[in-house]
Predict the 3D structure of the following.
Amino acid sequence: MSTEIIIIVILIGLAAGLLSGLVGVGGGIILVPAMVFFLQYSQHQAQGTSLGVLCLPVVIIGFLKYYFDSKRMGTPIDFRIISILAIGFLAGGYLGSTMALKIDQSTLRKFFAVLLFYTAFSMLEWDTMVIRWIKNIF
């Protein structure tokens, strides 16, 4: 592996970790597009690598920071919710990866892009703005 690739991978990981700690995202939103763009990974390869990163205890420091600070502020993180989400995440991760591997890369990339676009659109509340605009027309 070349020095350039190592530096790119470290920067991708740093950006994903930073955004993960900052707003709770990183894997799919940062890692996958960055690996496809900068490392020329296939969509399947990038998604699998992103899931591999989640398997490692790389987010434990960020989680512990949130856990102790939330507890101190009187809004503790509920481990029961984490456990239930983890069960769903395990099942969903297995089923989703099984489905993704049956979809061709081009279609999967388009689906991924639409999902990211929809998420951004909704978080900016443009969806309600468009609905209001349409209602005003009719």
Summary: The first helix runs from residue 3 to 23. The mean pLDDT is 87.
